[in-house]
Amino acid sequence: MSHLTQVPPETVRKWQEIVNLLAEIMRVPSALIMQVEPPNIKVFVSSESKGNPYEPAETAALNTGLYCETVMKTRQPLLVPDALQDEAWKSNPDIKLGMISYLGVPISWPNGEIFGTICVLDRKKNSYSEIFLRLLLMWRDVLQADLRTLATLDRQLEERDAKIRRLFDADIIGVFIWDLEGRIIEANDAFLRIVGYEREDLISGRVRWTDLTPPEWLDRDVHQWVPEFKRTGHLQSFEKEYFRKDGSRVPVLIGAASFEEGGDQGVSFVLDLTERKRAEAEARESERRYREIQTALAHANRVMTMGQLTASISHEIRQPIGACATNAEAGLRWLSAPSPDLGEVRQAFERISKDARRASEVMNRIRGLVRNAPTDKEWVQINEAIREVITLTRAEAEKNSVSVRMELAEDLPLVQGDRVQLQQVMLNLIMNAIDAMSAVDDGPRELTISTGKDESNAVLVTVRDSGPGVSPENVERLFEPFYTTKAGGMGMGLSICRSIVESHGGMLRLSANVPRGAVFQFTVPGDQDGASGPSAAHEGALSNKSDNDSCQPQCP
Predict the structure, then answer these.
(1) How many helices (H) and strands (E) does the chain have?
(2) Which helix or strand (DSSP H or E) is residue 407 part of?
(3) One domain, residues 226 and 255
(4) Going edge to edge, which strands form the sheet with 101-108?
(5) Region entry Disordered: which residue ranges (predicted)?
(6) How many other CB atoms are there within 10 angstroms of residue 540's CB atom?
């Protein structure tokens, strides 16, 4: 152990104070800590007292009759009051330096190996009291405690080095040892494979981390990571890129730690992220394709649903076009009168303009629902979007004797989303409700569409019907792709609706209505700044009359 563990400078300074204090208390010229280094013994620490002939790092050969040599062999304290009067010590080499008295005790490593001795020497006869021996033994215990600490640290360092070496040799991840000047001192094969270099390149000094790092990353290394490394002694793992030998780039995850506090060398662990980055790109592409398929399915669902609304659409278009024709004929008759009433003519033309705009709006809504366009997020006033869907489904409801009631809350916040997709959800839920109630022979067929806010301030839309309802075991299955209870149904409508709502950050759920029927509710997060669209008062039951019934022409 003695040849492995180095006593650090701070411990040497502490030991220097100990021998200085011993020399002062015992009033002797020399207090020493000796270390054995076969075939020699070395003055490891020497007191800075006056008349001390021993210099630090001075060595003497073993097996020459030294006082300390006897202490180390016997592992017992040794007291020599006067070597000149003792036949056993008359030839002791220390006598040549004038040191005729000696008191020393052995110092051992934790494993029992001899480190050396701690001793005092004097030029005059000195019997050294029992108190001095106890004092020497006490300081010996302090030194041995320091050696135990050093041995523990040494063992921990050995274990750390062994772990690093195992990682280094295992080639599981890249490992390299570097310094702040940019050199790579050592690297394992895994790291060399990552950057595409050979070991000959490393040995020749051609592999430097500063050269491996692209300019945009090197600037960050120099101004961010190096100062942090100097300050903390380690770097949390982060992503960067390295140049390979062939000039290509490799993405890596890297972490680093210093070997010692304040040192300029460190060890880094490097993980090649090429496969992970490729997998992430493939996942993004898969998500993009999934969104494309989902958009195509949603479009197909809208087209199919709109196909079911042929009668409603025809009705909504025929009404304003018919009104235009009627008002045009009325206007011509007013102009043909002996005394044309230009006021009536103007009113007829105004009604024509209004009905033409209405027909155009209906066509625009239909085109918006049918077209296959990319997702377009905008601020949507949900009540307005619902009214447009109700307009398209009104004739279908009338045909199936379904009374429709709207209960739209006032001052709802705007929601951000794709208007067409949100209207598709409403269209599916309303058409499903009408279809379900068409099979009900007893009791009223009532459809209620309401809006409000839930506890999280999200906009809440509720579609409530008085149909046969849904059995509890089928509630979740209704949202599964290709599950349907309709003859000839695709089973995609509710699945698409849930995907649309969830993509808008909301939820779609189903519960039972009382006394019968089903309740579909979905939420969409509202504008947190409180922006809202036009106020929407309680709508009440919808009239079965056309909006144009109140603006029929007055014939002369």
Answers:
(1) 14, 19
(2) strand 403-407
(3) yes
(4) 59-61, 40-46, 30-37, 114-122, 101-108, 78-80
(5) 525-556
(6) 9
H runs (alpha helix) in 127-197: 130-170, 189-195
pTM: 0.41
The one-character DSSP state at 172 is: S
Distance CA 130, CA 135 (A): 9
Residues 397 and 539 in one domain: yes
Number of domains in the chain: 3
Planar angle of CA 61, 140, 103, nearest 5 degrees: 60
- pLDDT tens digits, residue range 29-61? 999 999 999 999 999 999 999 999 999 999 999
Task: Name residue 510's amino acid.
Answer: L
How far apart, in Å, are the Cα atoms of 535 and each of 203, 222, 408, 450? 78, 59, 9, 14
96-137 pLDDT, tens digit each? 999 999 999 999 999 999 999 999 999 999 999 999 999 999
- Domain that includes residue 142, residue range: 9-156
At 304, which helix (H) or strand (E)? helix 274-308
377-380 vs 415-418, strand pairing mode: antiparallel
Query: 3-state class of 125 per DSSP?
Result: coil
Write out the two tokens for 405: 């009631």
Q: Please check whether residues 331 and 355 belong to one and the same domain.
A: yes
Contact 320, 313 (CB under 8 A): no
**Gap between the Cα atoms of 1 and 528, Å rounded:** 70
